[in-house]
Amino acid sequence: MSSKVNPFEIAQHQLDDAAKILGLSPAMHAFLREPMRELHFTIPVQMDDGSYQTFQGFRVQYNDARGPAKGGIRFHPDETIDTVRALSAWMTWKTAVVDIPLGGGKGGVVCDPHSLSQTELERLSRGYMRRVAYFIGAEKDVPAPDVYTTPQIMTWMLDEYETIMGRHVPGVITGKPVPMFGSLGRGDATARGGLYTVREAAKVLGCDLMGAPVAVQGFGNVGGWAARLGYDMGMKIVAVSDVSGGLHNPNGLNIPAISAHAERHPKKLIEGYREDGATAITNNELLELPVLVLVPAALENVITAENADRIKGKIIAELANGPTTPEADEILFKKGAYVIPDFLCNAGGVTVSYFEQVQNAYNFYWPLEEVQARLEEKMTTAFRAVHEMADLHKTHNRLAAYLVSVKRVADAVATRGWVK
Ligand code: NAD
């Protein structure tokens, strides 16, 4: 997202469109346009050379009418309070669309984690938790990893929280390593959940996914898994890419071999991989290939008013956050592309985070098959709710997803009697 665009203003405009169609009262609309609570704080950290640095931190609880706030913590040099507010709003709509009993939140620290040593990162992570420990909680607000934060950081934060509280509370944070009370199936959950929605989209469109051409932009956690799982499901993955460029083979790429290559690459890239029949392709060319399914799984704002007309994918599965601009949305809708919007398509990650919390609460851990079966049920049901809403209002799926989510949150707020 360009630095000139205020992401929180975008989030508010998206809500405004849904509020109009739903006929929300002015009071309800005004309430849902703002976060319920914010904590702004400073974190002093002693650096390895003995000097001190002070970092700026935030935690925003956007809305908790449907359950404890839920959302990641980012460590990023460009973090701003408005980014955190926007992301916490989107988490509110994401947990509502998959109908899990959680609200939306987000946190952040303005820092460049790549310039910090492991010991400095640990002190910063523990310092963050000391600031928010009494603001969050397993029954109030549950953080998770996000950009540049990891399962190791979650473990330091959990340890600090339990030290402060003097008791064992693994459900206060999710995205933990499996041996530290994490859930099986979290690693590929976002991609797997997205592919369940692609399967449902293919059903309603009457398309066969077996052997169908698919292009995946981004070969990281989400895109790499999407390509591998799609390949295992029998799709023909004709193109993949990452920050180093892309590969195209109209007869289908050997995804297990590319994954093994990326695994060995020092920066986990597909760079340097060769196979017969595969040629180099740019990230922009990949987006315009004649495929049945296009999976943007890297960056935001890659499908714009400039290239939307040339996009040939019938199903656009937005595993990345915000890959399509609002102008491009309208163009894609008019030309009949079926967009599975980001906060539905990539909700598999938060859904399995919720399963992690449930397992922590029971102190009883599910086998992988159970996690995946429950994920499938959640994603399929959410897909149908959005598809039916789009049909009802003759609109595109993104607005339909907002209509489903905003209505659920507004109903909870009204039933509690906060605002009518
Ligand atoms: P990641 O860092 O593991 O992978 C990102 C991928 O994008 C890498 O392959 C990288 O090389 C590629 N990339 C970076 N810059 C690029 C460029 N200029 N052109 C093309 N490719 C580029 O991140 P991830 O966890 O896979 O997240 C990808 C997207 O999915 C993000 O938008 C993220 O917000 C979203 N998402 C992730 C999760 C999750 O569970 N990880 C959940 C919901 C949404």
DSSP helix count?
Answer: 14
Number of strands: 12
By CATH reckoning, the class of the largest domain would read Alpha Beta
- Structural domains: how many: 2
* CATH fold naming of the largest domain: Rossmann fold
- For the largest beta sheet, what order do the strands appear in spatially? 9-8-7-6-10-11-12
Helix/strand order, N-terminal first: HHEEEHEHEHHEHEEHEHEEHEHHHH
Strand content bin:
15-25%
In angstroms, what is the radius of gyration?
A: 21 Å
Structural class: alpha/beta
Shape call: globular
The rounded distance between the terminal residues' Cα atoms is: 35 Å
CATH superfamily of the largest domain: Leucine Dehydrogenase, chain A, domain 1
Overall average residue pLDDT: 96
Biggest beta sheet summary:
7 strands, mixed
CATH architecture of the largest domain: 3-Layer(aba) Sandwich
Heteromolecules bound = nicotinamide-adenine-dinucleotide
- Could you estimate the helical fraction of the residues in percent? 40-55%
Low-confidence stretches: none
What does this entry look like structurally?
The protein has about 425 residues and is of the alpha/beta class. The chain folds into 2 domains: about 5-180, Leucine Dehydrogenase, chain A, domain 1 (Rossmann fold), CATH 3.40.50; about 190-345, NAD(P)-binding Rossmann-like Domain (Rossmann fold). The protein is built from 14 helices and 12 strands. The chain has helices spanning about 5-20, 25-30, 80-95, 120-130, 150-165, 190-205, 220-230, 255-265, 285, 325-335, 340-345, 350-360, 370-395, 395-415; strands spanning about 35-45, 50-65, 70-75, 105-110, 140-145, 215, 235-240, 245-250, 280, 295, 315, 340. The strands form 2 sheets. The protein has a 7-stranded mixed β-sheet, sandwiched between helices. Strands 1-2-4-3-5 form a 5-stranded mixed β-sheet. Helix 6 (about 190-205) packs across helix 12 (about 350-360) and helix 6 packs across helix 13. It is globular and about 60 Å long. The two termini are about 35 Å apart. The mean pLDDT is about 95. The chain binds nicotinamide-adenine-dinucleotide. Nicotinamide-adenine-dinucleotide binds near residues 217, 346 and 349. Nicotinamide-adenine-dinucleotide binds near residues 221, 241 and 243.
